[in-house]
Amino acid sequence: MAVDEHYNEHGGFPKFETAKVEPEYGELIEALRRVQDLAVSVDMPADALKAALAQTQQLVATMEPHVVPERKTPAGRVPRLPGRGSLLMLPWTVEKFDADGVRSRGVFRRFHLGGNGAAHGGTLPLLFDDLFGLTQHAYGRPISRTAYLHVNYRKITPLNQPLVVEGHVDKVEGRKTFISATLKNEDGELIADSDALMVQLLPGQQ
Ligand SMILES: CCCCC/C=C\C/C=C\C/C=C\C/C=C\CCCC(=O)SCCNC(=O)CCNC(=O)[C@H](O)C(C)(C)COP(=O)(O)OP(=O)(O)OC[C@H]1O[C@@H](n2cnc3c(N)ncnc32)[C@H](O)[C@@H]1OP(=O)(O)O
User: Fold this and answer.
1) For a pocket test of ligand 1, which of 77, 145, 149 has the largest count of ligand atoms closer than 8 A to its C-beta?
2) Separation between Cα atoms, residue 92 and residue 107, nearest integer Å
């Protein structure tokens, strides 16, 4: 019994609960994404730079008193928002979520630039990893940890072009869930594919 009591807090992941937010929350997250895009795009003269710094410091002062622990912030817990409202996640929107698989659509933005107009290679594992988390959740498996995640980069990943990522569970063996996914453009061309092993945590395991 003690194990069950502590399972939600100390073993594995806690039960995931969606968050209710004010309408302005999604707008704020999008405005912050725009700031991220600009932060990696601009070359500002000194006066604009000073103004941007002062305004950013003011924003930090507005937000800072409201910091709450993990699981209390709505970030990442608003499924209808791009990236579930988390700035870390790619701003993609889930359009299919069931045991057959999960499909999500979106674009890589200027913030995700690697070089020569292509998305940074490190952003693809982030996209796939989060999709795999959702995929196994939709399949009815407990939230698990990624043991490995393999990406094949088949074509350059373009910025600002609508893309679609789709994953499904391939097999389950005890604690192990094997999942794979593809990233395609709207013409159905394969840009990347990925497969991963997710391992269910044991009670008491962080
Ligand atoms: C629109 C609707 C939206 C709704 C939203 C609602 C809910 C949202 C739900 C979910 C949230 C969504 C998304 C979540 C987001 C993403 C999930 C990402 C998860 C992560 O991103 S998490 C961070 C990265 N991750 C780590 O930080 C892992 C560090 N690591 C460890 O924590 C351990 O390493 C662990 C636990 C993996 C295993 O450790 P362990 O001691 O428990 O188990 P052990 O080693 O015995 O392995 C057991 C069996 O797996 C095999 N095995 C293990 N590793 C292997 C490998 N690499 N290759 C091949 N086989 C492997 C063994 O060979 C054995 O196999 P066998 O049983 O057959 O012998």
Assistant:
1) 145
2) 7
